[in-house]
Amino acid sequence: MKKFQVLLILALIFTLFQSNISLAKPKQFIKIAYITQEKSIPAALSNLDAFVQNKGLVGAALAIEDNNTTGQFTAQHYELVKIIVPLTGDPQQWFIKNITEDINFIVVNLPVTQLKLIADLPQAQNKLLFDVATRDDDLRGQQCRDNLLHIQPSRTMRADALAQFMLKKRWQKWFLVSGTDKNDRLFSKALQRSAKKFGMKIIAEKIWSHTYDARRTAQSDVPLFTQEVDDYDVLVIADEKGLFGEYLAYRTWKPRPVIGTQGLVATSWHRTHEQWGAVQMQNRFKEAAGRFMEEEDYAAYLAVRAIGEASVRMKTNQLTPIKNYLLGDKFALQGYKGKPLSFRAWNGQLRQPILLAAPRSLVTVAPIEGFLHKTTELDTLGIDLPESKCEKKE
Amino acid sequence: MKQILLSVGLLLLTVTIAKAETVFVTLEKDNAIAIVDPIKGKLLKTIKVGQRPRGIMISNDNKHLYIATSDDNTIRIIDSETLKEIGQLPSGDDPETFALSPTGDRLYVSNEDDNLVTVIDIAAKKVIKSIKVGVEPEGIAVSPDNNWVVSASETTNMIHWINTKTLEIVENTLVDPRPRAVHFSADSQQLWVTSEIAGTLTIIDVSTKKIIKNIALKIQGVSRDKILPVGVVIDKLGNYAYVAMGSANRVAVINAKTFEVEKFLLVGQRVWNIAFSPDQKRLYTTNGTSNDISIIDLSSHKVTKSVGVGRYPWGIVSKP
Question: Does domain A23-153+270-352 have CATH number 3.30.1390.10?
Fold first, then answer.
């Protein structure tokens, strides 16, 4: 028996040795952690879209697969360390416990408050965190952190994308309706900034206060709600949770298009997107997940692919050269949107085209033709270097 | 000697049928191919071929068209005279681009969704081998000396060098992001690669597999984001290379000896793929979003005509 075991071990060592010889160099390991917390099922307007618990994770897993396909030719191996904090757990504790010395890169799918707490942990200081969940402008502005990159477009980037489109359509007079949620107010602020930036007029602004039972009385309440506003071109909605926005289209007193968080939306990824090889991505994702790719999936995919791209180019698994490469001029990530994606070195935001999509059709992609910029047209979206309040960077 | 005979034969053929020439264009969204007379600059007819036709090639004797109908997961063989389907090849899933061996006996197909290159024996209509490559293989070419098959994977950003005898990957060359098309020089000494997202052209020495030149394609007044090179071809004499520039709506004319970009020719919108006329006097381009092809006269380097063909023209070949 013992003899057999020894033989087996010898055989194993031999095969390992063999495979190393065939690769001609030893493998380099790159560990990437993915941390998220379970969510309770939120209240929803309708049951059309089923609640998805693993948004993001499948994207990260798919990118690990892609990285490893490349890695077989570069003798690099990528491993995803999944950290799923239970509903009642403390993400900070889970981070401290699970992020070992050998993990340099952490994809974080957590809300703003939790993300900040984690990013400020002493254990996170010599790491690089990839935020795949938030769209918060403060986090990319005066509250920016050196160990944090942001993959999803910020609220100002989304608002600018919408504003560029509305300017092109000459929908210059907006009626802005916002929810009472804190995030709705932030998006509403971003929209006001975009209106100013592109010379549009907000002729009326109202808060949807949820004092009605919209489900029963949308037919009668929305006309009333929109009746007193005159002479507007477009109804712009800030309702990030989707609690009332869907009820406004077709029910306004005057016939007007609906845009914002409902109607025509600004998003980094959408199921209607098929150009620039996106159909391949959509198919591969659907096969892996059994559902459409969502923004968090796309962001997590890009985060892990960015690490893959930098580590292959720099032939390393070390933090500093990878971070420098990601923030440098040479970095160009393929993201199925027809333009190379890269990071804004001044605040760690991934620059990218933004899709403007209706529920069943991709309407256009921002930056819209004609909006020019001296370095890249992608920087016509969101906070540009001169206005950035982030102090850590150049 | 054979080659001389062949070219003499071709010459005679072109003389006898008095400049007759046919161009075939796959129309991705029309599930059809367009047949064009490039001399008259006229669309002759359109025939249905199958779901989502993309890559197209013609056999060395000009008798058979091979057309990848991606959504049917097959490569169709179509008689180039009667335009009737005469057979199908087992291409694997979602065939897009493929290459024909110089001897005409094999097809090498990129299977983008499965990260494979499928090798097909044309006569036997059988798969000889499936070779694992990087993520999303796209551009593929066989060297004219029949020693190498190269496959470019778009997401892995690599050129995989496959030995045609052993059908194994021998070496990999890392190139700029999203490599799209690959083309060997006629003497099999150089490989030219376009990188769509990077907006660059990379020239690799075949014997050492090392990059000898990287050209950043820049057009004054056109932002870097719009420079998305795709198709690339080099003429037989090695004088000029031509690169389709995607959303920049231009074809770059590059001196293949000095690697100097000499000029840009304005063609249709989102120019994708390009092909020579059999006598290499003209160049044809498929313009993806303006639904036409452009015809370029190569002695003057001028665009002479554009011909509307149908929705999403993708691949293009010509025959005398």
Answer: no
Report the distance separating Cα A238 and Cα B121, nearest Å: 59
pLDDT at A21: 38
Residue B124 zone, left/alpha/beta (φ > 0; ψ -120 to 50; rest): alpha
Give the H/E segment covering residue A57: helix A57-74
| Domains of chain B (ranges, CATH numbers) | 177-308+312-316 (2.130.10.10)
Q: From chain B, which residues contact A within 8 Å (Cβ)?
A: 112-113, 115, 132, 134-136, 153-158, 160, 169, 172, 174, 176-178, 197-199, 223-225, 228, 247
Hey, where are the domains in chain A?
Answer: 23-153+270-352, 156-267
What confidence score (pLDDT) does residue A1 get? 47
The whole-angstrom separation of Cα B170 and Cα A22 is: 11
Looking at the predicted complex, does its ipTM rise above 0.85? no
> What radius of gyration do chain A's Cα atoms show?
23
Domains A23-153+270-352 and A156-267 share a fold: yes
pLDDT band, very low/low/confident/very high, at A374 (cuts 50, 70, 90): confident
Q: Which residue among A66, A334, A378 sits closest to B197, beta carbon to beta carbon?
A: A334
pLDDT in tens, A4-30: 555 555 554 544 444 433 445 668 999
User: What whole-number distance in Å separates Cα of residue A36 and Cα of residue A95?
Assistant: 10
